[in-house]
Model the fold of this input.
Amino acid sequence: MNARSSASQPPVEVAAAVLLRDNPDRFLLACRPEGKVYAGYWEFPGGKIEAGETPLAALTRELQEEMGIALETASPWLCRDFVYPHARVRLHFWRVTKWQGETDGDMPIEHSAIHWQTMDAPCKLAPLLPANLPILKALRLPVRMCITQAQTRGIAAELARLENAQQQGLRLIQVRDRTLLPAQRQGFLRAVMATARAHGSWVLVNEDGDGASAELARLSGAHGVHLTARALARAAARADFPWVGASCHNAAELARAASLQLDYALLGPVLPTPSHPGMPALGWRRFAQRIARTPIPVFALGGQSAQTLGIAQTHGAHGVAGIRGQMAED
Done:
């Protein structure tokens, strides 16, 4: 069977575990043993979802069978389709943060080897199953995003807030503030970049579709751009930055962000927020339903803070983003 014919077949549903540890600075990869398709390739452990099983039930069973560990805490994350020459697969990736049993042995039950990979270090394991490649980049994305509001707080106060949040672990900042005068916004972005470099944080510039913010991002050395929903609708292709995300409010916008191969999306408002006073909140159940098959990381937006991160991830979010909410850990 070639890739074209396998693409027309119903997908094989697979549950895949992203085991995380050390807060979480490391994740586990496993090497496929001899006798299996793609023997010698590295992958995230998991396996086929049997008839009548949920992805979580399959994940629990596979981790016990393959690695001899008992899953305790896991949350849904990404769902990606991939077409191999022999089959089309739909991978349900779950982040696993707690389990019982050892994961440091040299001889796992159904893999030839395992390796704990550091999150920020380049992965030198090869070959890696192609369907898993985008997951490596997604794992690097911080889980808390602070969206700036210097135009209402004041530039000095906002810089002080960002400095405090970064001292407490924040590593992802979206510079919004499009209503500032161009010179003010440029100066504010320069100051944000200076403090971000000191803390190893990433900075994205909010782009409304006219190209001005993208140019500002290039001149400042920012890590990428964040597209408004209007900019997302106008985009003919992914912007040429290492990191590109977008604001989304419905399933069609999420699908467009995925089709442009963006690195993440924001979806909201999940809870009532002054930022969207006329827009009804999704609530957690509808949020989870809307992102259930999304192949890119999604941040919950609207009424979010560092304190809502856990519940957001339980409902499938990659993380949380907010303008007013405290994004620093207590």
Observations:
- The chain has eleven helices and 15 strands.
- Residues 104 and 235 are 46 Å apart (CA to CA).
- The longest helix spans residues 182-199.
